[in-house]
Specification:
Layout lengths: L22 H13 L4 E4 L4 H12 L12 E5 L3 E11 L4 H20 L2 E13 L14
Parallel strand pairs: 3-4
Antiparallel strand pairs: 1-3, 2-3
Helix pairs in contact: 1-3
Length: 143
Amino acid sequence: MTESTSGGASRNPADRGRTTISDGVVEKIAGLAAREVVGVHAMGSGTGLARTFGAVRDRVPGGAKSSATRGVKAEVGEVQTALDLEIVVDYGVSIRDVARAVRENVISAVERMTSLEVVEVNIAVSDVKLPDEPDEEPESRLQ
């Protein structure tokens, strides 16, 4: 007995079913890619108090957002995604160059890992980390 391939379902396993990618997955990829860029000090709000609360929240199980996605918002469609990033840069770097490098690294990582087309990456620089400013990360009280 022979099988007929005309008129039937696709024989290619890649065409059987669909894959969806959540906003959080794209946010995590983009956040990690942005942090890889030299000159990016932190992601998210530039205020020391907000960074402190965010660091504490990240250490509490069930915290609102993981540190990998802090400062990143993604809108994911079926074939495209758009991203908004909020970064803190190190003092002395060219903000324009850092933003360009972040945009390139994020687009490359997201498109390579998800096959989604990145239609835009908006970057908001919310603060500059001065050399003499201490990092705002508090000691963890949790073990």
